[in-house]
Amino acid sequence: MEAVTTVSIISINLARFLGFFMSIIGFGIAFNSNHMLKITSEIPEIHGMQLTSAMFPALIGSGIVAVHGQCTANWTCVVTVIGWLMVLGAFYRAWLPAHWAGTTRKCGTKLAFHIGGTIGGLIGLYLLYKGWINPS
Question: Taking the model in full, what pTM does it have?
Answer without folding.
Answer: 0.88
